[in-house]
Design a protein that fits this description.
The complex is a heterodimer of chains A (215) and B (75).
Chain A: H1 5-18, E1 22-29, E2 35-41, E3 46-52, E4 56-62, E5 74-76, H2 79-90, E6 103-111, H3 114-122, E7 129-131, E8 139-144, E9 147-153, E10 163-168, H4 172-180, E11 185-193, E12 196-202, E13 208-213
Parallel strand pairs in A: 6-9, 10-13
Antiparallel strand pairs in A: 1-2, 2-3, 3-4, 4-5, 6-10, 7-8, 8-9, 11-12, 12-13
Helix pairs in contact in A: 1-2
Chain B: H1 2-9, E1 36-38, E2 44-47, E3 51-55, E4 61-65, E5 71-74
Antiparallel strand pairs in B: 1-2, 2-3, 3-4, 4-5
The chains are: A alpha+beta (215), B mainly beta (75).
């Protein structure tokens, strides 16, 4: 079933309201077909997404001194692009003070030749230890620049990427939702683990990206 | 009525086609009909990019700034 534009707007408002950074969002539907969402973030910033049948979609951040300017910084012809831009603007990663919270924490190289790969990276100065978690495979692990660098054996029938990345993020659930609406393939939904709250998605190349939130 | 007021006081004649909202020509234009909601009781709500305009059936008008949530004009 194809959702109407009004229904898409309602779903977007629900998604925004579920965000812990969004104080409230207001949807106004007009009989002419025009629609407008105002999003108020908890930090006081305000964003708008407007649709006019004649002018298409406009997205922008509002400022106190905008006056009666009625043009939009971002314009789109499709709802999905406008919705993504609004979510991107509303996202806390749009706050400069919050950007440093993202930290590369894990790199995993999958290989058919563990020893040759270990020797290669050892030559760069990495000091590896043998590790095995539960029933998982024996692998090599080192620390570099505060991140864990691991070498895992690749399965013979592996069809996924040969690289695995891990990021420490401020909120696994929020980052996961942001990637999900961008159609990232979900490998593992967010859940609590011995390493903190964790989720795994695949990038467009099939490489797995692990998101971890230190509690 | 707004157009009559602007005709008389702005000094800018009403163009045949309403200019794009980003164009500033010294004349005010009424909110786009796309963003006007007329209630059954006669009240009107008009939204612009940054303002919420409330017009009651008995003629009271209030313009609120969406960012500050303050009333910028009331009559």
């Amino acid at each position: 079933m194809i959702a109407s534009l009004a229904e898409k707007f309602r779903q977007l408002v629900s998604t925004l309201d579920a965000s812990s950074d969004c104080a409230r969002s207001e949807l106004t539907l007009f009989p002419s077909g025009g629609e407008m969402i105002d999003v108020h973030r908890k930090d006081g910033r305000v964003f708008v997404l407007a649709f006019s049948p004649d002018r298409g979609f406009g997205v922008d951040e509002l400022h106190v001194d905008d006056g009666f300017v009625d043009s939009y910084q971002f314009t789109f012809t499709e709802f999905s692009s406008a919705a993504l831009k609004l979510q991107e603007l509303v996202s806390p990663s749009n706050s400069p003070e919050e950007r440093p919270s993202l930290k590369l924490s894990l790199v995993v190289v999958f290989t058919h030749d563990l020893d040759a790969t270990r020797d290669f990276y050892s030559a760069l100065g990495l000091e590896f230890q043998d590790e095995q978690h539960g029933g998982g495979p024996i692998h090599y692990s080192a620390t570099v620049g505060g991140a864990v660098f691991e070498i895992y054996p690749m399965q013979n029938n592996a069809s996924v990427g040969s690289l695995r990345l891990g990021f420490d993020v401020q909120s696994v659930d929020r980052t996961f939702q942001s990637l999900k609406v961008r159609h990232a393939k979900v490998v593992s939904e967010p859940r609590d683990s011995p390493w903190g709250r964790r989720a795994v998605v695949a990038d467009p190349n099939g490489n797995r990206v692990e998101l971890t939130q230190q509690s | 009525m707004l157009e009559q007021v602007e005709n008389e006081f702005s000094g800018v004649p009403m163009p045949a086609v309403t200019p794009h909202p980003s164009v500033v020509d010294g004349r005010m234009y009424r909110p786009l009909e796309d963003y006007v909601l007329r209630q059954q009781n006669g009240d009107i709500l008009a939204m612009t990019r940054g303002h919420r305009i409330e017009i009651s059936a008995h003629g009271a008008i209030r313009v609120l700034n969406k960012v500050t949530r303050q009333v910028e004009f009331e009559k």
